[in-house]
Amino acid sequence: MKVITYGTFDLFHIGHLRLLQRLSEMGELTVAVSTDEFNAGKGKKTIIPFEHRIEIVRSIRYVHRAIPEESWEQKIDDVKKYGIDRFVIGEDWAGKFDFLKPYCEVVYLPRTEGISTTELKRSLGVFGSIDKAEVVKALEVLEALKNSLK
Q: In the β-sheet with 105-109, what is the strand arrangement from edge to edge?
């Protein structure tokens, strides 16, 4: 069986790895990695550049082939070109790729709980917006409080 999935794979994390492992257990795995230009067209900004993201995905032992995802429209062509039997993507996309059903089986999988790239980016954004002077001041206040309790 030949399987395909699509994704950005920015800030590669354990959820990505588990997904690729699970999909490879279904058969030969092709992964389409969204290009920076395609993501920009979707209003999505990545932290890791495309060339690095696709290299990371290609280096995963569960992946047979990694290709660029350059447009929404390429999916039918990819399914035909690579002889894909099963298209698999996260359940947050449920119903959105049913147009592929005449060409292959379409499966929507649950996401790995407790981890998402969106949450990682949100956390990094909060961390990056912390003013160092405020942190130093807060530490000084804590130190003074600690000393007053002695």
A: 65-69, 28-34, 2-7, 86-90, 105-109
Q: What is the pLDDT along the chain (150 residues), one digit of tens a residue?
A: 999 999 999 888 888 898 999 999 999 999 999 999 999 999 988 889 999 999 999 999 999 999 999 999 999 999 999 999 999 998 889 999 999 999 999 999 887 655 555 554 454 554 444 555 665 566 666 666 666 766
Q: Give the CA distances from residue 136 to residues 124, 133, 139, 147, in Å, rounded to whole numbers and listed in that order.
A: 19, 5, 5, 16
* Residues tagged active-site: 42, 44
* Nearest-angstrom CA–CA distance, 19 and 113: 12
Tell me the one-letter amino acid at 57: V
| Separation of alpha carbons 91 and 37, rounded Å | 25
